[in-house]
């Protein structure tokens, strides 16, 4: 979807129109207003404009870039539920990807999602992990911008 200046200007005009019609809308049944808003969103979607959902953060509304990054975590990270906690934290942040144990005693995987969320997860992998883990270090490789996610959820690979 596009989030160019034309879409932003259109969104700003809609906001001004919304304010101008506020008193008028008080006289219209809520169901009619919701139906009109739904039609407007559908129309804007056909134009390729990104319309931020209510409650969506501005960084996401502006189209936070999607990235993919591989990681490996060193230390006491096996036998301490590190993969389970990694999966839970990734899902909590809305990331997709995978995590697995290695034969070398490390944990490795791939993260995909908005840059800000991936950065948060990288910090979590470097500093927190599972309650019983002890992280010596984490390495991150093959970072790249992606146009779409390659995974639909966050999986533990056995």
From TrEMBL:
Alphabetized InterPro entries for the sequence: Acylphosphatase, Acylphosphatase-like_dom, Acylphosphatase-like_dom_sf, Acylphosphatase_CS
Record-annotated membrane-spanning stretches: none
Family annotation (SUPFAM superfamilies): Acylphosphatase/BLUF domain-like
Source organism of this protein record: Catagonus wagneri (Chacoan peccary)
Reaction(s) catalysed by this chain's protein: an acyl phosphate + H2O = a carboxylate + phosphate + H(+)
Residues forming the catalytic site: 83, 101
Molecular functions (GO terms): acylphosphatase activity
EC number: 3.6.1.7
Pfam families: Acylphosphatase
Lineage, broadest ranks: Eukaryota, Metazoa, Chordata, Craniata, Vertebrata
Similarity comment text for this entry: Belongs to the acylphosphatase family.
Domain of life: Eukaryota
Record's signal peptide: none
Name of the protein: Acylphosphatase
Keywords: Hydrolase
Record-annotated Acylphosphatase-like domain positions: 68-158
């Amino acid at each position: 979807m596009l989030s160019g200046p034309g879409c932003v200007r259109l969104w700003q005009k809609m906001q001004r129109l919304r304010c101008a019609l506020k008193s008028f809308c008080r006289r219209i049944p809520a169901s009619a207003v919701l139906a009109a808003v739904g039609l407007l969103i559908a129309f804007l979607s056909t134009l390729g404009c990104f319309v931020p959902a209510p409650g969506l953060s501005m960084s996401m509304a502006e189209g936070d870039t999607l990235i993919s990054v591989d990681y490996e975590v060193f230390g006491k990270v096996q036998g301490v539920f590190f993969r389970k906690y990694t999966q839970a934290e990734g899902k909590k942040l809305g990331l997709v990807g995978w995590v697995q144990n290695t034969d070398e005693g490390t944990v490795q995987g791939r993260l995909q999602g908005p840059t800000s969320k991936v950065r948060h997860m990288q910090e979590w992998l470097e500093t927190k992990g599972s309650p019983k883990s002890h992280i010596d270090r984490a390495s991150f490789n093959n970072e790249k911008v992606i146009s779409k996610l390659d995974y639909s959820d966050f999986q533990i690979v056995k």
